[in-house]
């Protein structure tokens, strides 16, 4: 354990110096300089020189509620959803991993995460101006997506902290029931530092709408934005940053850690679909904060994101259930819950960009395609992705990200992309937007895949990835934590 603590301190030190290696500037933006993709993460927190902006109390109240809802998604939502899916002897290990990962990530977020993700630096990493939230006060503000409208920066910090906390927790589904607890923690610190933070910066960092006062000013502001923001990739609430990013880490982990003992030979059915249903329901409720909260304002666009989240999830639940019914002869509770999560994942990047018609199509497609993802694709890959992280979050995230480029078109009911210089919706080019979306998907897959591979190798080198065979057979609850979830 002392060795683990020493390694964790070393990783944190390396993380704080990692931005030094990202000084090279990105190529000139291919997307229009005055557009505003990725409605989920403005970073400008400086007040205009003329007057100190006053945050709207309604927006502030809504963002506090949305933040609490996203916390609900992780603890207890995700913990119960995953916990019900494993065998009874590993229930507490999953709860423990989710709970502690959440705690570690919110700590790292305040120490250096927020600064690296949401301050100006290179196109891939932010800077270190706000380590330990240096300079942030109760008067500090963060920009929204309307000129002259702000929320308290502390509210923005805690809202984004919840995203940074749930994303690594999603990964554990790929290697559930067989990885050392110490290895899980060390991997998460490395991956958070070198995969989550750069992806958040690349997709969501920009100078804020007030920087776009003219074509020249907009061009200068766009040059400071994240790499994928400059490419024009749209990600309203985390299709690339959260879902594809985590799914790749889970898939690589499934290969690196190896299959569970008895996989394909012994029954590994979920021990409590009751808890899985409860967890899925909490995820659905919390996801309204995740998606609608990403608008940062309590207005019509937040209402659209809320509606789309509700609609796509309901449709995905039905499409998965009916397809399973046709294929297997019976509809299952596991299928319905999985369909709901697939719909939530797929609509995440699109929820503030598409209209109800787009949400309906995305939801219907997500249920069917993610069902294939956890069956046909999983067999093709040959990995023991225990809780189907890639089949749901990877496949659903990719599907939603690409279809965002289609259904954001105003001609199909979408809201289009706003030009902050012209103060009007820009002309929509579907082909160009889909290409931008593919940039986002490709970078997320490659970046997370490489970082994850290196991180697992480092962890394996120092402390090993997997528990001994006898501990795995007995169950991680007792062997790793000295407790049991149930006393019969």
Description of the structure:
The protein is an all-alpha fold. 62% of the residues lie in helices and 2% in strands. It is built from 16 helices and four strands. The chain has a two-stranded antiparallel ribbon with strand order 1-2. Strands 3-4 form a two-stranded antiparallel sheet. Strand 1 and strand 2 form a beta hairpin. Helix 1 runs parallel beside helix 5, helix 9 runs parallel beside helix 11 and helix 11 crosses helix 13. The longest helix is centred in the last third of the chain and has 33 residues. The chain is globular. The two termini are 32 Å apart.
Task: Give a summary of the structure in a few sentences.
The chain is 62% helix and 2% strand. It has 16 helices and four strands.
C-alpha termini separation: 32 Å
**Strand-residue proportion:** under 5%
Q: What would you call the shape?
A: globular
**Roughly how many Å is the radius of gyration?**
21 Å
Strand order of the largest sheet: 1-2
> Major sheet, described briefly?
2 strands, antiparallel
Task: Tell me the series of helices and strands, N- to C-terminal.
Answer: HHHEEHHHHHHHHHHEEHHH
- Overall mean pLDDT: 91
Q: Give the helix level as a range of percent.
A: 55-70%
Structural class: mainly alpha
Low-confidence stretches: 1-49
What is the helix tally?
A: 16
How many strands in all? Answer: 4
